[in-house]
Amino acid sequence: MIDRLQVTHLRNITRADLKVADCNVFIGANGSGKTSLLEAVFLLSRGKSFRHHQPKRYIQHHQAAVTVHAALTDATTLAIQKQLDATTMLRLNQNTVYTQSPLTQQLPTLLIDPSSMDMLEQGSASRRQLLDWLAFHMKPGFHPQWLAYQRLLKQRNKLLKQSRQLSNNQRQELSAWDKGLANHAALIHYYRQQVFNDWQPYFERCVAALLPRYAGKISLSYMAGYDADTPLDEQLAERLTQDLQQGFTRIGSHRADIQVHWRSQTATKETSTLKEQAANVLSRGEKKLLITALKLSQLPLLLADNGLSAASGLVVEKDPLASTTGSFAMEQSEVGGTVAAKDIEADSTADITGFTPIVLLDDVTAELDEAAIQILLSTLAALKCQVFITSLTEDILPLLQQYWPGFKLFHVKQGVISAPI
């Protein structure tokens, strides 16, 4: 959990040095800089902003870099510096690290904000990232496979763009890459499927809490992005001509998706159901609640916490002998994309990450009604999370007092953050 947060030259925040608590609320007008504080935590955790990908868009005007530093309650320190040309410097316990993942592991961060409320209608990337965020934190073997897959995919797409006619040497090179992609894709699919199976019961209970009238009518489905029953390299070989024409790889793990379905009974047969996209059925307000359920349901799963209060509605009874919440040590299969039993070794470790999740709630009072906010806050209070909340007004304070009597209040005005005495 973050104990102290320091931010320098982020948008209109010249410098902020904050001692924070379990729950922190930032009150200020639009443009005051309160969302920038959430952006700072997200930047430290993910290595990128949730508002703009280009650092020059969030580095303060006339400054060369933005810096975010955090000291955790266990004395761990993390720091990131982003320069105008996107050069990044990362520090963990005063030591330079060269990838973002060590910081991300230390600081698992979940964002619920207005910009994510169109997730159901957008492309698959944002929904796929929800699943991959869980896989990253729950399955230690997932991220190396994902990185290796992305490197090979980049090489393959570069070759596809170069020419629509490949030489024999290029075809042999492509074939080797495809076999590598198939192996990585099979393992990525395995991890995703494991996490997805664990996630579903939490999501169903969260829907029942936030959208009780639709309990049992909304479901998730996971699509691998290719036919997972056939090695990916075989499918890529069959589609090579079309891929060359399009200049990119059209199937694979990078095309995976999470779909949210609405199930309704048919008029002719009571036992049969029709399935369609939930986004086509629900109202705008209901979609917001559904997206909140998607994100909120990840937290108890990440923490493997069955000790939630009954009021949260998210208690999930789990088989103590099941290994689905454990981590897995996997070796790459030698067979084209097929995961054999010998490749998987269950780890009985019950603790998923060992790190306190950080939840960032940006202006949720403008997106959710009071009943939904009550469920959201009660669930977060029942979990071992640290919460950062922004609001235009102090109307949310009585609610926070119910769940976090010791919450910390900050006022934000023109980039200056102050805490009432």
Brief characterization of the structure:
This protein is an alpha+beta fold and 421 residues long. It has helices at 34-46, 101-106, 124-138, 142-162, 168-210, 232-238, 240-246, 284-296, 298-303, 370-382, 397-403; strands spanning 2-10, 13-19, 23-27, 65-72, 77-83, 88-92, 95-97, 109-112, 218-223, 257-265, 273-277, 328-330, 344-346, 358-362, 386-391, 408-413, 416-418.
What do you see in this structure?
With 421 residues, the chain is of the alpha+beta class. The protein folds into 2 domains: 1-108 and 355-421, Rossmann fold (3-Layer(aba) Sandwich), CATH 3.40.50; 122-254 and 284-353, Up-down Bundle (Glutathione S-transferase Yfyf (Class Pi), Chain A, domain 2). The protein is 36% helix and 22% strand. It has helices spanning 34-46, 101-106, 124-138, 142-162, 168-210, 232-238, 240-246, 284-296, 298-303, 370-382, 397-403, and strands at 2-10, 13-19, 23-27, 65-72, 77-83, 88-92, 95-97, 109-112, 218-223, 257-265, 273-277, 328-330, 344-346, 358-362, 386-391, 408-413, 416-418. The strands form 4 sheets. A 6-stranded antiparallel beta sheet has the order 2-1-4-5-6-7, covered by helices on one side. Helix 3 crosses helix 5 (168-210) and helix 4 (142-162) crosses helix 5. The longest helix has 43 residues, at 168-210. It starts with a strand and ends with a strand.
